[in-house]
Amino acid sequence: MKILEHIEIVKDVVQVVFWIIAGIVPISVL
């Protein structure tokens, strides 16, 4: 069980999703 590796992958995915949302929201507001 390499749980730590899965956690790191989840962190990366969450960060990417966060930046995508952070990039889309301002455009939608404008």
Write a structural description.
- It is a single chain.
- This protein is an all-alpha fold.
- The chain has one domain (1-29).
- It is 90% helix and 0% strand.
- It has one helix and no strands.
- The protein has one helix at residues 3-29.
- The longest helix is centred in the middle third of the chain and has 27 residues, at 3-29.
- It is rod-shaped, with a radius of gyration of 13 Å.
- The N and C termini lie far apart (46 Å).
- The model has no long low-confidence stretch (mean pLDDT 88).
Helix share of residues? over 70%
Oligomeric state of shown chains: single chain
Provide the succession of SSEs.
Answer: H
Portion of residues in beta strands equals under 5%
Number of E-state strands: 0
What Rg is obtained from the alpha carbons, in whole angstroms?
13 Å
How many DSSP H or I helices? 1
Secondary structure class reads mainly alpha
The number of distinct structural domains comes to 1
Structural shape: rod-shaped
Task: Give the biggest beta sheet.
Answer: none
Low-confidence stretches: none
Measured distance between first and last alpha carbons: 46 Å
The pLDDT mean sits at: 88
Question: What would the keywords be for this entry?
Answer:
30 residues, mainly alpha
